[in-house]
Structures are given as C-alpha cells and as structure tokens.
C-alpha cells in the first residue's frame, strides 16, 4: 500500500518558506535601520538574507510592503497595540494603551527601529505614505467605528505623536525625572490625555475679545 507523503512535504516546504521569510524581515529591519528607507535596496536585503531577490517580491510584493512588514508591524510603533485593545473593548482605552506601550519598552524593547521609522517618514514621501497606509489609515477607521467620531485620522496621529515624543525623551534622551518615572505614574498622567484624543469632544474655544 502506497503512503501519501504529500502533507509532510508541503509542511516541510512551508516551514522552510517561513524561515526564509523571517530572515528577510530581519535583514530588512537591519538595512532600514542602517541605510534608511531610501538607501536600503531590495537586492541588498535579499543578499543579506541569503535568498533570491524574487523571493522577497513573492512574500512582500515591493519595497513598501517589505518596509511595512519589517518596521511598521513590530511592537515598536506607538499604535501597535491599539487594534488588539479595541478588540478587547473600548473602556479605559487610553490608560490601557499607555500602560502596554511603556511596559513593553521598560521590559527591554529596542528603540532603534522606532527611530528608523520616524526618520524615514520625515524625509521620504514613500515611507511616510506607507506609515499612514499601514497604521493611521486602518486604525482611524476602527476608532471612527468604535467611538463615532468624524476626525479619527487626526486623533490617532495625535496619539502616535504624543507617545513617540515621550518615548524619545524617556528612552533615547533619558531626560529626568521622566526617564525614571514609574509606568503607573505615566499611565495616570498620560492615559486621560490619550483617552481624550481618541474619544473626547473638541473643546470649545473662547471667543476673542
């Protein structure tokens, strides 16, 4: 009786493909960190990963897709946890987001990919568009649906910019006393502000006299 060996073979190919994909992601992250978005090339990343350049295009489509997969989707992005937190409910979303963000960094997160992301977006229109399309755009729709707000893109951009600034001061510049403030104190200070960004109404401005 002949044995069907197609499943083990497929499983082996799948594991090999996933290993190659992870090598490409790791190589891309290093290249983007070192050379920036504009300086990193798909061919150079493929060489670093030890794969044919066609495999990079097979998994990621283009350079923008590779940048998104290697830099934008990791836990370093300020909005990384927001979608999962919304899945778990919208109650106290500001405090939960701030706590998760700083706990992850305090546990030993690597800050350099976050700097790479923002540096690249600052000088490269393509990287800036990828950043928006991958994070702000989809999350804005989630925020709009969850809280019934019409200016959701501005809200998520305020959240990302606020948390990015705090992370830069705390982990890169190590400004005291911010650098040594406890996570729970940061949650108490910043959580309500992030909550207002996501769910609050725009304050009415007093008319000028």
From TrEMBL:
Lineage summary: Bacteria, Bacillati, Actinomycetota, Actinomycetes, Mycobacteriales
PANTHER family documented for this protein: HTH-TYPE TRANSCRIPTIONAL REGULATOR RUTR (PTHR30055), TRANSCRIPTIONAL REGULATORY PROTEIN (PTHR30055:SF235)
Keywords: DNA-binding
SUPFAM superfamilies: Homeodomain-like (SSF46689), Tetracyclin repressor-like, C-terminal domain (SSF48498)
Protein name, entry field: TetR family transcriptional regulator
Domain HTH tetR-type: 18-78
Superkingdom of this protein's organism: Bacteria
DNA-binding region, residues: 41-60
Keyword Chaperone: no
Pfam family, one: TetR_N
Single GO MF annotation: DNA-binding transcription factor activity
């Amino acid at each position: 009786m002949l044995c069907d060996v197609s499943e083990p073979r497929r499983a082996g190919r799948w594991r090999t493909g996933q290993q190659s994909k992870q090598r490409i992601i790791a190589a891309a992250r290093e290249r983007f960190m070192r050379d920036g978005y504009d300086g990193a090339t798909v061919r150079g990343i493929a060489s670093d990963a030890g794969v044919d350049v066609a495999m990079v295009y097979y998994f990621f489509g283009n350079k923008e897709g590779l940048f998104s997969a290697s830099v934008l989707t990791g836990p370093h992005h300020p909005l990384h946890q927001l979608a999962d937190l919304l899945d778990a409910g919208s109650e106290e979303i500001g405090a939960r987001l701030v706590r998760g963000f700083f706990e992850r960094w305090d546990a030993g997160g690597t800050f350099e990919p976050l700097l790479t992301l923002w540096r690249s977006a600052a000088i490269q229109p393509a990287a800036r568009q990828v950043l928006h399309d991958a994070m702000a755009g989809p999350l804005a729709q989630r925020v709009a649906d969850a809280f019934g707000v019409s200016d959701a893109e501005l809200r998520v951009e305020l959240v990302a910019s606020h948390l990015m600034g705090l992370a830069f001061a705390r982990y890169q510049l190590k400004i005291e006393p911010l650098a040594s403030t406890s996570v729970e104190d940061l949650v108490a200070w910043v959580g309500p502000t992030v909550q207002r960004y996501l769910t609050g109404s725009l304050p009415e401005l007093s008319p000028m006299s």
